[in-house]
Amino acid sequence: MDAYQRIVCKWCNGQNTNPTQCAFCGAPLDAQNVVSESGWREAPRLRDMTQIRFDNSTCQVEGEIVPVVECSLAPNEWVYFEHHCMLWKADHVPLTVMNLQGPKRSFFRMPHIVTIASGPGRIAFSRDATGEVVVLPLHPGMEMDVREHAFLLASGRVSYSYVRIKGLANILHGGSGMWLDRFVTSQAPGLLVLHGYGNVFERMLAPGESIQVEPGSMLYKDASVSLAAEAIKLSTGIFGGTSMYLARLTGPGRVGIQSMYHHHESGE
Amino acid sequence: MAGGPGAYVCPYCRSSVAGGSRSCPACGAPVDVSLKVTESGWIELPAARDMARIQCGRSSVQIEGTMVPVADFALAQGDGVYFPHHELLWKEPGVTVTQRGMKGAWKRIMAGLPVHMLDAAGPGRIAFSRDAAGETLAIPLHPGVSVDVREHIFMVATQAVTFDWFESGVWFTTREGDDTETHYPVGVFMDRFAAPAQPGLLLIHAHGNAFVRQLAPGERLLAKASAFLYKESTVSMHMHVEHPRPSSSSIWTWGERYLWLVLRGPGRVAIQSAFGHTHDPGGRITGGVTEHRW
User: Fold this and answer.
1) Chain-chain contact of A238 with B51 (C-beta, under 8 angstroms)
2) What CA–CA distance (Å, rounded) separates A200 from B245?
3) Is the CB of A212 inside 8 Å of chain B's CB atoms?
4) CATH number of the domain to which A195 belongs
5) Exposed, middle or buried: residue A28 (CB in 10 Å: 0-12, 13-18, 19+)?
6) What residues in B contact A199, CB-CB < 8 Å?
7) Contact B133 A198 (CB under 8 A)
8) Domain of A148?
9) pLDDT in tens, A96-111
10) How far is A244 from chain B (nearest CA, A)?
11) B74–A37 C-beta distance less than 8 A
């Protein structure tokens, strides 16, 4: 098919020859892009059994209320994930662990082990909560920050680190700070799959444009989007009042939120 | 409005609206689906269609998402909404949020009720969601009508809607030894909303699916207390205990009992399909209920 005949996916900008479904993120191409009047775009509702290709491997999204992501890994290809998201795997698929700063993460009650599963073989993942699977194909040279515990899996070509946003959660819950997983691609593209509680919405912030969100609803953002805590003073007339804290996200870049906001015990 | 081409009365919110839209502009319910009424008379409230738009004066609200819906308000200059602070999802920085004075705040704290009721003033956008799967119910309130809502399910209301709270009066006491305990299956307090001067909009969250029905004067209905959502103020409530006829072959069936919430018309009542267990605390029930032994 010629370039002018290809269909560009509005979610991931992938170019497709299949007119019904994006091969890179699974978004239906024959369904309307759903955007609210305020500019939030709904994450594409993946059809049951949608198949997505990454490198020589594939993954299939199964179910709709608590979706399962089932990977068929090609030889010499691998994915990594937090071990509690693993649902089942083929007996012969080997598991190893990624080298992280375990004690430091444990101290802050973050999972200190990120597990790697290598092909060939099948392995499946799910988060035990109602929500949506968000498939984010990462083009070369992208940096994406994701709220802690929200990622289901990433392909081997995506490098992984984490950053701590000081201030926000310290104030909110007396915790150790809000942790964000950072996923970076350099020369090659990769695949990142997240789980959002409830419904997931995304919007693009222009340079300098900002929005205030409930901190528990922040799901992901481009690394170019800054995140800061802001207090709103509330006077109750009892004990002198209190404050409500919101997270201010400032562009440029895209941000994703979940409608069922979630506070983990990991010190956010 | 009503009487024009395509005009109709919405079967869900009973507002008279002009035709032409796929959703009721007063409550967001889809109008091009057939009315689902159970044989027993419950009307199943259809979930608002994704991106359904509800007009409330010069402002509007859009219902976004289906599993855990978001209510996204576009507030006009001079318009406002109020809400418990934990319902806020996001807002534009230009939308100001202030604390609303609450009468009896100390009582509310002691009852475990939200004490931080906030006002948001337009112009600008602000959005709300409850962190649970279910439906967002939009209840247009007309002058002369007030509804009593179970505590903790109120999401947001427009400024034309007045807010008050009162003791639910639904309770029973149990006695074990020398200890007497009072129980409140629908909460110690309930929220009351009305729009005395001009129409307003009230949004609440239902866990699972929501159903409504109209009770005739004197008509009684027994429901699980934890499934109760809201009622018109003309509907009265109290607790009722049923004792099933015990089996003569098993002593384990002796003393079995079921706790019910009695709803007595006239007026509209609503229930939710996902409800927690109504806890029977055990012990001898000593007051606050009617009883029936089969």
Assistant:
1) no
2) 51
3) yes
4) 3.60.160.10
5) middle
6) 64-70
7) yes
8) 9-258
9) 888 776 555 555 556 5
10) 8
11) yes
